[in-house]
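Step 1: inspect the first sequence and its tokens.
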Amino acid sequence: MTVSVRHTNGAGRTLLTQVADAQSLAWAQRALETRQLARIDVPVLAMYGTQTYPQMPAAAASLVAVLPRAEAKQVPGAMHMWEPEPMAVELASFTTRCAAG
């Protein structure tokens, strides 16, 4: 399946551009729904901000439901603008737990 978006350049010509993000998102959604990703057996941390789109906590929960070693964590921040210190603390804690086995 190819997902495309039409753009018009300054000369009035229509350019056809593939949208890889949309294709990747569609593949990932199918892989979660069919549990194809359940074979991933490594630690996964799905983090999302306290002020984000409602789909982000739901997406993190979907990962946790399918990936055997996944966990979700909410951190202070909005959208893609994270509070660096709390995020760093969570990442350090996660990697320390992973290294300890």
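Step 2: inspect the second sequence and its tokens, then contrast the two.
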Amino acid sequence: MQQVQVSVFDHSGFSEVHSFPTGMGLSLMEALKAAGYPIEAICGGLALCASCRLDWLEGSVSEPNDAELDMLDTLPDNQSCSRLACQIRLESLYDGRASIRLNPSKS
């Protein structure tokens, strides 16, 4: 089973690198929750709440789908790097690595 490397930055600038397995169909949100990050995921990964919003800092990933774009458009502080972790499958990290910032609205 292959692994992806994700550098996770919090709002204070602290970072940790995690390895997550691919091939299980997990979303980035599920992997981050399993690693102990406080992601609410109120809607359960349906792109209806944006509680798993993050800033995508680095790494090649699939484009956001329409549901994700619709939800992001409702946010007053939406930026071009904003993504929903629930809509990103680990397999869609094309180069096997990424850098993200959690809770960008709290920075």
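Step 3: confirm your contrast with the notes below.
Helices lie at 28-34, 66-73. DSSP finds two helices and five strands in the chain.
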